[in-house]
Amino acid sequence: MIRETWLNAATLTLLVAVPAWALVVDEPFTITLATRAVIFAIAAVGLNIALGLGGLVSLGHAAFFGIGGYAMGILAHHAQTYVPLEIGPLTLAGTKSMPVIWLTAMVTSGLAALLIGMLSLRTAGVYFIMITLAFGQMFYFFAISWPAYGGEDGLSIYVRNGFPGLNTLVPIQFYGLCLGVLLLVLGGMFLLARSPFGLALNAARQAPGRVETVGLNGQRVKLVAFVISGVITGLAGALFADLNRFVAPTMFSWQMSGELIIFIILGGTARLFGPVIGACVFVLLEHLLGGLSEFWLVYLGALLLIVVLFARGGIVGLLSGRRAVHD
Amino acid sequence: MTDPVLRTRGLHKSFGALVATDDVTLDVRAGEIHAVIGPNGAGKSTLIAQICGTLAPDRGTVTLDGEDVTALPARDRARKGLARTFQVSALAMEDTVLQNAVLGALGARGRPWSFLRAATRDRNLRDTAEAALHRVGLIDHAATHAAELSHGQRRQLEVAIALTLAPKVFLMDEPMAGLGADGSKQMTSFLDGLRTEAPILLVEHDMDAVFALADRISVLVSGRVIATGTTAEIRSNRDVRTAYLGEDA
């Protein structure tokens, strides 16, 4: 327990120190890489609420990541082309303001999570995995065949969106913003896991019959967790699109959903910092091994195999010397 | 005489050709322990499932405190005052004893929609949970993980969670199972005092416990209640002796 706290503190220190060092030695690419890791971490912390606490193995979280991305892409696209956005009788101006984009991303991905969750939670186990995958794929093919926003080619945004008081075009400032969001999300996750809601969610995963026997609606608790999870992953999607100044259907791909799960398994399921460490290791390997061989995913696969076979608690479990929180 | 707290009328459940519950009518009155006994395969588990709401009967009704609850799911019956304990402990094994008891208190409160404050630091939840743990004698193990408890302690925790619900009636599925002689004695004396708080429908294999505790006994054989009566009546009932208790009982 105590060693895990130290490990978390060390991770946070690195998340501050490495980009600071990169700033001093003028290595903006390292800062971009760190930003990518932090945004992936936010998305995976979101998934960890459903997967780690609720035991809901969603292979469709790319849907929310993509919705967040397209919320940013569509709003910014209308702002840069000065064409208002028409939704039925409503006519809205596009925007380049991050807070507005984030809010839109969170609300739309939350609504999508509510709908997908309501239908998917009627199933469990492998069927839940399959139905969430199917929903993810529906969004993917919809994005590909929707010509208004670039279809298969995606959508480029020329200038990064703005945040009050910051110059988001400066890599370290955008990084700081993303790190701030990650810290907020981690703080929320920390509180949530210990709250009455978190207690009920944890119990609904471990002993569903017990939760009903004390008079609580376990399915509803899981649904709310799924929505919170989708909202956070959607927010990460908006940030990811802003990092690349580009949105494409690949954000909706099932590989994206799979990667989010990999971050969690690699780092440690249901651990507060598991997804953070998993995302950082993934981005680091992607950069280092990706430079050596285009078949770097083979090595990642081998690593994942080792973790699953010998370190069920992921990297956090291995380093903190504590067994898996749960299987 | 007051209405019974819990009553089943003409419960019937069959699985294909197998009749698991055959016209079961029984009631649990205020202040009593009503035991249901029967050989393996008599349909005790199926009966419990229908009473607590995890299995729908083909025919018949379940009434809780005068209200027909036959159509309600298990969680609504729980909220209306039916507290069950499981034969095979159903606990959140990775959670501590206190957290498990707090879950019960949270169920009694009914609303889990609180996201920020730690559950075990909520004064009301904690007080309810600790009071229940104190009563069953588990308070010294509050910080232990449920997975590390002995079999007997898990049974105690099952009962503690039921206590946090402050129910109108307890439905206990073999609380003595696997307890050993001493544990069984302790549990017997604990349940003995509990009946004044809320009556108990006790499904139990341990005959010593049943005859020590029960005010009335119903005997279930092949899904059918063949006799209901006081311990003395059941002991001397010829049908029961031949069908269940055996020649030498």
UniProtKB/TrEMBL annotation, chain A:
Keywords: Cell membrane, Membrane, Transmembrane, Transmembrane helix. It is a multi-pass membrane protein. Its main location: membrane. Pfam families: BPD_transp_2 (PF02653). The chain crosses the membrane at residues 38-57, 62-80, 100-119, 126-149, 169-192, 223-241, 261-285, 297-319. It is found in: Cell membrane. The keyword Transmembrane applies. This is Branched-chain amino acid ABC transporter permease.
TrEMBL record, chain B:
Keywords: ATP-binding, Nucleotide-binding, Transport. Pfam families: ABC_tran, BCA_ABC_TP_C. GO terms for molecular function: ATP binding. Residues 6-247 form the ABC transporter domain. It comes from the Bacteria. This is ABC transporter ATP-binding protein. The lineage of its organism: Bacteria, Pseudomonadati, Pseudomonadota, Alphaproteobacteria, Rhodobacterales.
